[in-house]
């Protein structure tokens, strides 16, 4: 355990690995696990791992110039992950929005749902709500159509809305 304020020393980079095949066998699982945790996707982690090892293999003849080959692999792989994420964001911005697909059965379902909701109301409440909210009549015009006072139309509509919200039982 280190004392407070003591400088943390990381292990010195290992000597250059003797051959690529051995290095790959020793390190690929650790790199894959790390990339899987970063990306959350096995296929993407495997692709990034392979790309990183490929870049290291291309430089294998100069391996002794790389201070820490494992750190180099991590750096290449994580940079690749960031580049893919940036490319995905750019592609999403350029994506052409798809038009709204109109399903005629949605209207049937919606109409059925509205009908079921309205059937929970007393007939006078239903009539008041339909005239006011669906057809857009004012309370004066709705009262004339229903043969009642405008204040009664407003009261019936208020009661009907309360029933639809589930706060009251239906009234006459």
Question: How are the SSEs ordered, and which strands pair?
Answer:
Layout: H1 20-39, H2 42-58, H3 69-94, H4 104-119, H5 123-134, H6 139-146, H7 150-165
Overall description:
- This protein is mainly alpha-helical and 172 residues long.
- Helix content is 67%, strand content 0%.
- The longest helix is centred in the middle third of the chain and has 26 residues.
The global form is: rod-shaped
Q: State Rg.
A: 35 Å
Coarse structural class:
mainly alpha
Low-confidence stretches: 7-13
Please tally the β strands and state the result.
0
Overall pLDDT score = 81
Q: How would a textbook summarize the main sheet?
A: none
First-last Cα distance: 80 Å
Keywords for this entry:
single chain, 172 residues, mainly alpha, 67% helix, 0% strand
What's a concise summary of this model?
This protein is mainly alpha-helical and 172 residues long. The protein is built from seven helices and no strands.
């Amino acid at each position: 355990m280190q004392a407070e304020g003591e400088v943390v020393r990381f292990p010195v980079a290992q000597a250059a690995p003797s051959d690529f095949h051995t290095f790959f066998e020793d390190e690929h699982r650790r790199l894959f696990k790390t990339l899987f945790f970063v990306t959350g996707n096995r296929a993407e982690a495997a692709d990034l791992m392979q790309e990183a090892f490929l870049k290291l293999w291309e430089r294998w003849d100069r391996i002794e110039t790389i201070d820490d080959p494992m750190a180099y692999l991590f750096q290449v792989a994580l940079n690749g992950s960031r580049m893919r994420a940036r490319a995905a964001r750019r592609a999403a911005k350029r994506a052409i929005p798809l038009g709204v697909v109109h399903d005629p059965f949605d209207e049937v379902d919606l109409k059925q749902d509205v009908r079921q909701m309205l059937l929970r109301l007393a007939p006078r409440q239903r009539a008041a709500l339909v005239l006011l909210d669906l057809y857009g009549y004012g309370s004066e015009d709705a009262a004339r159509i229903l043969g009642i006072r405008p204040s009664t139309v407003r009261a019936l509509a208020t009661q009907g809305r309360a029933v639809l919200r589930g706060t009251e039982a239906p009234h006459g």
